[in-house]
Amino acid sequence: MERKHLPRIEIAEPDLSGITIKSVQEIDTMREAGQVVATTIELLMASIQPGMKTRELDAIASREIKRLSALPAFKGYRGFPATICVSLNQEIVHGIPGDLVIRDGDVVSMDVGAIVDGYFSDSAVTVGVGNVTPEAEQLIEATRLSLEKGIEQATVGKRVGDIGAAVQRYAEAQGYGVVREYVGHGVGRALHEEPSIPNYGDPGKGPLLRAGMVIAIEPMLNLGTWQTRALDDGWTVETADGKISAHYEHTLAITEEGPQVLTARNGSVR
Q: Could you tell me the pTM of the whole model?
C-alpha cells in the first residue's frame, strides 16, 4: 500500500533522518511477514477468474493470512475497511473490495500486506484476467520490469533518487505515465516509515541508502497521463483520463550483499 503525504511516524530507534536501520533478526521477521504476503498473492493469482466479485478475493486473502498465523496489515489502517486493496482497470490503487464483478479482459491490481510479531511487509501485483488486450499485457509487463529496474538500484551507497530515476527512465521510454502523487516508503514496525520512495527523480539525490534499511518500491504506470483523481469513497484512486493502470510492489532489505526481496514469490521477484 503506497504512501501519500503522510505525517512523520514516530518509530523506535530512529536515526537523525527518521529512518530506522533494522537488525538481522528484524529483517528475518519481516521476511516471514513477506512470505505470508507472497503466499497469499500466489493464491489470489491462482483463484481470480471472470465472474468473481472483488469481495471474494478479499475473503480468500483474509482466510490465508489467518491460516498463516499473521495479521492483515491494511484492515483498519486509517479506517480502510478490507484486508486487501483490489483495483480494476482505470483504478490505480486503494480499491475497496465489494460487489464489483471481475470481467473477462479486466486488469486487476491486488495489494496485500501482513504483520508478523509486530513487523510489516507489503507487496502488489497486477494480472490480466482472461482475454486481455495486447496493450494491457504490455503495460503490466512494463510495470513489472520497471520495479526490477528500481530494485537493481537499491544498493548500499546509492540514493533514493537513483531508484526513482531508474523506474521513471524505463517507464517513460516505453511511453507510459508514471504516477507521482503516490509513492513507495520505508517499512518496519509501521506500514509507512521514512523515507518516501518516489517512482521518479534525479540520480544521486535524496536520502542515502544504507545497509539495514527496509523499503517498499512500488511503481504505478498508466497507459495515458500520470495524473490521478480520488473517488468519493475516500480511498480509490483512478487515472484522470480513464485509461488503464498497473501496479507492482515488493518489500526489500538493503544489505551489503545487495537487495534482498522479502516478498519474493517462489524465490523470484516476478
A: 0.93
